[in-house]
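Extended Data, panel c. Modelled sequence:
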Amino acid sequence: MASNSKKEVQKEMRVVVEVDGNPVGFLNLDLDRLWPLINHRRGDTVPVEWMDAAKFDSIMRAAVVKRLISRLETHLYQALGDEMVKAELDVETFNLKAEAAAQTFGRSKAEIAKLVEDDDCSTMDFYSFFWDYLLDDREVIDLKKEWKVRGTRPR
C-alpha cells in the first residue's frame, strides 16, 4: 500500500553541544519563527517554473537551515572553547583569593567568630565582605586593611 502522506517540514532544530564527546547542553531553534526572519521573499514566484513551489521551498529551507546550523556550530564551539578557558581562569582566581582570605583571617569558623567579635561586627558582615572581595575584579593587596576600612563605614 503506497502512502501519499508528505513528510512534514521540521519545526524545531536541536543542536547538541558536546565537550570532549560528552553532551553538555542543547541549542533549540524554533524554525517556524526563525524562517520568516531568514526568508524575506514572501509571495515571490519560484525561480524555476518546472519545479513544484512547495518542494522547492521545502528543499531550499532544509539546505539553508543545514548550512546555518553548520555555521552556528562552528561559532558556538569556538566561543564555548574561549569562554571555558576564561571560566577555568575564574575558578583558579577564586581559589587563590579564597586561600588568601584563609591565610589572612583563618580557616575555621571559630577564627572568623573571634574576628567579627573583636571588630564588633556580625558573621554576615564578614561573609558579605568575603563575597564582595571574591567577586570584585580589582586586586586587593591588604585584606586586613580592607576589612578594617569596611568596618568603619556606616552600615
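Helices lie at 31-38, 53-105, 109-118, 123-135, 143-152. This feature is highlighted in the accompanying rendering.
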